[in-house]
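Journal club side-thread
Mid-discussion, someone asked how the predicted structure for our own chain would compare to the paper's figures. Pasting it here so we can look after the session.
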Amino acid sequence: MLEVDVLTIFPELFAAFLETAFVGQARRAGRARIAAHDLRGWATDRHRSVDDSPYGGGPGMVMTPEPLVPAIEALAGPKGVGRRARVVHLSPQGRRLDQAGLARLAGEPALVLVCSRYEGVDQRVIDLAVDEEVSIGDYVLSGGELPAMVLIEGMVRLLPGVLGNPESIETESFRGGALLEGPHYTRPPIYRGLEVPEVLRSGDHAAIEAWRRQQAQDRTRVRRPDLLEGAGSSVSDRRPDRSSPPSGADARAADPDDSGE
């Protein structure tokens, strides 16, 4: 079972997300336990403060070690051997998330996702309580909540039995190697003069597979040539190994408020 605790100052943002579509289905089926926790619940002052002005000056505010470190330790235990969960801070400074990263994190016994805001977090929080930082893209968002949802949805989709058709996972972009998916078609066979490729209606499964493989290679070459360069020249001559770990497209994370942190 996937176990995820999210630490945020806006737990209400997760309410609908955690009840909707296959994320909600996975929770109701007991395949995932996901909960959002209000960081301010660990604040000790009357204003329930979580931030302060930065040393050395500069714009914005920085999230303080108190109450962030105690909150993380309450959910995951102290950093080090014997910790109950792996602690991930969503930050543009983190390792770029790809499909292989999703699979790796989904295999953890438990996760705590830290969603920071403002100009970022005091470095001592990272040093004392965070195991790794993850990024979903080279851009800036106002906080780590949306990146956390991206991470959660990506991991939930990998859980056995969550998707109605298991082959949906195996044939997706990045899943079988460094290729994007080719085009998809469904009924009607002709729409506004555009016809479904004849090979897809032929019933010749070998020909269909060859066509899809070629389309995937062509689309990747046009749209994401960097994937083919990273995978080496042999990728265009081989069928993607759908059982191997994905090498996927990188997309680097987003988190703190208007800071690029």
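Post-session note: The chain has two domains: 2-156, 178-237.
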